[in-house]
Amino acid sequence: MPAERLLPTTEAEDLLALVREIARDELAPHAAEAEEHSRFPREAFRLLGKTGLLGLPYPERFGGGEQPYEVYLQALEEVASAWMSVAVGLSVHVMSSYALATFGTEEQKSRWLPDVVGGDLLGGYALSESHAGSDAGALSTRAVRDGDHYTVNGTKAWITHAGVADFYTLMARTSDAGGKGVSCFFAPGHVDGLVAAKPERKMGLTGSITAQLSFSDVRVDADRLIGAEGDGLKIALSALDSGRLGIAACGVGLAQAALDEAVAYAKQRTQFGRAIIDFQGLEFLLADMAAAVDSARATYLDAARRRDRGLPFTRQAAIAKLVCTDAAMKVTTDAVQVLGGAGYTRDFPAERYMREAKVLQIFEGTNQIQRLVIGRTLR
């Protein structure tokens, strides 16, 4: 049962129809097997690049789609409803492209952005460290200027696409001035001294690679500095506002998939001579699931529309990330309950949806951090 959408233009309606077709025909049929075998779907990202989906919010003159976030996020939601690992990878790539597209010079954008939005280059976002997750200003990876390049040393943790990304938006310390000493680099992904550890053995999103990333005397050309030295934390936090909306949309897509699975099962499963959807106890559970999905979608769209209009949206992004990912956790858990014993088996996707939902409450800032962000706006 496709989600009903109110889109701003006919062009957007055609775009969402294309995305839905790709999600249904090219992504969904491969998701279960790839996740079962922890296989990274690099070809899926090349397909998204060729069809223009990796650069939807970025300028047309660099090969992007120049779509408002309201449209991009709904396209992302459609991908998430088909294959969550691909959707999270798409969201990470778009966030990783943000620094270059927003704060890069014209020369930098002309040089790299067409390949970034076209899918030839896959991105990773290298901010977190083992001791600096929620406290991003405490990072210790260091970049030291040496003539026409920087030498980078340190270790990043929990990096999506570690080892397979062609570039990383890297946050590294260039001075000891706390948060003001962090700088941003468009760092190459395949270079001497850059090594990815063995991928983490995760509960869900097993088709998405997550690993530590170690920099040992890695040379990064000075012309890959984005903005000025010391701008890194400002750039990182700005990117995270938009990235949180991406994860919110992923959560809604996953919840929609779980709701659709639960409704389809409840219509065909019979007990006492009736389809179980006809029993009020189950009907009310499904109704609550539908209400959670629809209200979560409205929450992220409100934040996206504020962003598109140039209004402040940090608080709304935090609310959307909190509400949408909590909804994903609840709806996927309830979907398992609707399927009963079958929902606990890998013969149905509901159990995978539930495992995938959990991490949404953790990355791009835990939901406890979202509450801190929201709370500070109330003071």
From TrEMBL:
GO terms for molecular function: acyl-CoA dehydrogenase activity; flavin adenine dinucleotide binding. Keywords: FAD, Flavoprotein, Oxidoreductase. Its cofactor is FAD. InterPro entries: Acyl-CoA_DH_CS, Acyl-CoA_Oxase/DH_mid-dom, Acyl-CoA_Oxase/DH_mid-dom_sf, AcylCo_DH-like_C, AcylCo_DH/oxidase_C, AcylCoA_DH/ox_N, AcylCoA_DH/ox_N_sf, AcylCoA_DH/oxidase_NM_dom_sf. Residues 125-218 form the Acyl-CoA oxidase/dehydrogenase middle domain. Residues 9-119 form the Acyl-CoA dehydrogenase/oxidase N-terminal domain. Residues 230-378 form the Acyl-CoA dehydrogenase/oxidase C-terminal domain. Belongs to the acyl-CoA dehydrogenase family. This is Alkylation response protein AidB-like acyl-CoA dehydrogenase.
